[in-house]
Design goal:
The chain is of the alpha+beta class and 160 residues long. The protein has a single domain, classed as Gcn5-related N-acetyltransferase (GNAT) (Aminopeptidase). The chain is 27% helix and 22% strand. It has four helices and five strands, in the order E-H-H-E-E-E-H-E-H. A five-stranded mixed beta sheet has the order 1-2-3-4-5, with helices on both faces. A hairpin with a 4-residue loop joins strand 2 and strand 3. Helix 1 crosses helix 2. The chain is globular, with a radius of gyration of 16 Å.
């Protein structure tokens, strides 16, 4: 099992983060879908600079970024969220670990980093959303995440 380090995400990590995110588009409700790679790097940099946004990366012994988590403090959100506890919550917006480095506890460590940030900010929970088809849902359940409800996607065909 390899060794890794968890640290705060920096602006210079944006390219590696965008690269990792693209690996998971088939199963992810990714925020990067349809965004060209240079724009995805810009998106990461822009959001890291915003109040309430933070990120963490996992690096291998050689310094390569092999996983990341992006989160935001919902207390900083201007819009109201769907449940009363939202203002006391950190949202895990994105989590990804390179397949070659899975099974080493990296995802759990990245989630713990988000949890530690939440506690430091006085928040009482961490929120995430995940597709039922995403295998990561089992990890989230093992880590104590509970289902809040169900979001239904609806579409109406229009007469032409």
């Amino acid at each position: 099992m390899g060794r890794y380090t968890i640290r705060a995400m920096e602006q210079d990590d944006a390219e590696a983060v965008a690269r990792l995110a693209r690996l998971f588009e088939p199963i992810s409700t990714t925020i990067f879908r349809g965004i060209p790679a240079p724009d995805a790097c810009g998106w990461v940099r822009e959001h890291l600079a915003r109040p309430g946004w933070a990120g963490f990366v996992a690096t291998a012994e050689d310094g390569e970024v092999v996983g990341f988590a992006l989160c935001k403090d919902l207390e900083q959100e201007e819009s109201e969220f769907v449940f009363p506890e939202a203002r006391k919550t950190i949202q895990l917006v994105y989590l990804a670990v390179d397949e070659a480095f899975r099974g080493q506890g990296i995802a759990s460590a990245l989630i713990r980093a988000c949890e530690d940030l939440a506690k430091k900010l006085g928040r009482t929970g961490v929120l995430l959303d995940v597709s039922e088809q995403n295998p990561a849902i089992n990890l989230y359940r093992r880590l104590g995440f509970k289902r809040l409800g169900a979001q239904v996607f609806m579409r109406k065909e229009l007469d032409q």
